[in-house]
User: Which sequence fits this backbone?
């Protein structure tokens, strides 16, 4: 399978996940950003930003050779709109980076690092696929946080108990 075709397939998958992800992000109130369901859990604001940010990871994987957690820049969103705007920017960057891939790029190595130490190495093709899965996983986690806070959960792959359009 050629790399340009694979990149187009990843773009289609990315685009398919954007609408339901956006519906989730738009519903997270800033006054709950500090909430977490358990002391070992991440805060709702951090999780929300993570879901908005993972498309940027896709862009970095496609464009570059590594992400180092020590140097990767995160925004400090103070409002839900800032998270949503960041998400839109990240999706645009991901699509642009995927569209720029050429033959041979998917087999190039990608490194996930922490303070320069390699935690994980794989080719870009496998890393992009697992990053998309990682994004969907965290969006699912976000919907659980939403449910626990009585925030309406949108329809994602089918009806939601809160989505009146399926009633």
Assistant:
């Amino acid at each position: 399978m050629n790399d340009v075709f694979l990149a187009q397939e990843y773009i289609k998958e990315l685009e398919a996940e954007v609408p339901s992800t956006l519906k989730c992000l738009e519903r997270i109130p800033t006054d709950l950003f500090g909430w977490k369901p358990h002391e070992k859990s991440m805060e709702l604001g951090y999780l929300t930003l993570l879901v908005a940010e993972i498309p940027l990871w896709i862009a970095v994987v496609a464009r570059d050779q590594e992400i180092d957690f020590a140097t990767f820049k995160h925004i400090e969103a103070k409002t839900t709109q800032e998270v949503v705007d960041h998400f839109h920017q990240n999706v645009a960057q991901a699509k642009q980076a995927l569209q720029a891939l050429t033959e041979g790029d998917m087999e190039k190595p990608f490194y996930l690092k922490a303070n320069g130490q390699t935690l994980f190495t794989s080719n870009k093709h496998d890393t992009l696929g697992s990053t998309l899965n990682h994004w969907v996983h965290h969006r699912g986690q976000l919907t659980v946080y939403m449910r626990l806070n009585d925030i309406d959960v949108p329809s994602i792959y089918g009806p939601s108990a809160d989505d009146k359009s399926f009633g």
Residues 3-151 form a domain with the Four Helix Bundle (Hemerythrin (Met), subunit A) fold (CATH 1.20.120.450). The chain has a mean pLDDT of 95. The chain is about 55% helix and 10% strand.
